[in-house]
Amino acid sequence: MPKVGEKNIDVLFSAQEIAKRNLELAQDIVAKRFDNLLVISILKGSFIFAADLIRAMHDAGAEPDVEFITVSSYGKGTESKEVRLLRDIDSDVHGRDVLLIDDILESGKTLKFTRELMLERGARSVSIAVLLDKSVKRKTDIEADFKGFECPDYFVVGYGMDVGHSFRQLPYVGVVRD
Ligand code: IMP
Ligand code: MG
């Protein structure tokens, strides 16, 4: 079990497993033959997954434009969560195929908010790629078109995901133990 500072981390998905899965996801995405594709990475949590996935997509033959959006969900419980746009993209999405990339799909509120925003702006299609799907926590009708792994109902960190801004740097996904 790796130790980070004083904490032991239980590895759920190793760097190798994630890299292998990213190649498969990239192939699946490229097979959809999106037109004039704009990839939007939802910050902050998706930054490492997006960086790896778009390079895997390049290797699979895709030529997407890449943008970033910062949305944040406030409220303690999943029920009371409210999503806000903190920093917008610069590109016009009108008539384009859009692929939203996020780290983890939980209640679905973050991705529902972002997808509806892009559809309102006239995107031709909006697809969703997530590394992890915590489907037992879903509170909306949102599903991912491309998902890396089903995630057990633990609070996970690493590979971009944090607890209090810590642990984003880990190259794997894990659970913090004492
Ligand atoms: P949703 O809006 O409830 O689907 O929540 C999705 C967002 O919550 C993700 O983009 C993450 O930033 C965050 N999140 C949900 N579960 C976890 C977790 O286990 N670890 C770290 N962040 C999480
Ligand atoms: Mg997030």
UniProtKB/TrEMBL annotation:
GO biological process: one example: IMP salvage
Keyword Metal-binding: yes
GO CC terms of this entry: cytosol
Catalytic activity as recorded in UniProt: GMP + diphosphate = guanine + 5-phospho-alpha-D-ribose 1-diphosphate; IMP + diphosphate = hypoxanthine + 5-phospho-alpha-D-ribose 1-diphosphate
Coiled-coil annotated residue ranges, if any: none
Keywords: Cytoplasm, Glycosyltransferase, Magnesium, Metal-binding, Nucleotide-binding, Purine salvage, Transferase
Protein's pathway: Purine metabolism; IMP biosynthesis via salvage pathway; IMP from hypoxanthine: step 1/1
Domain Phosphoribosyltransferase per the UniProt entry, residue ranges: 12-162
Cofactor requirements of the protein: Mg(2+)
UniProt entry tagged with the keyword RNA-binding: no
CDD domains in the cross-refs: PRTases_typeI
Location within or outside the cell: Cytoplasm
Enzyme Commission (EC) number: 2.4.2.8
Primary location: cytoplasm
Domain of life: Bacteria
Gene Ontology molecular function: guanine phosphoribosyltransferase activity; hypoxanthine phosphoribosyltransferase activity; magnesium ion binding; nucleotide binding
InterPro entries: HGPRT, Hxn_phspho_trans, PRTase-like, PRTase_dom
NCBIfam families (UniProt xref): HGPRTase (TIGR01203)
Protein family: Belongs to the purine/pyrimidine phosphoribosyltransferase family.
Protein name as it appears in the record: Hypoxanthine phosphoribosyltransferase
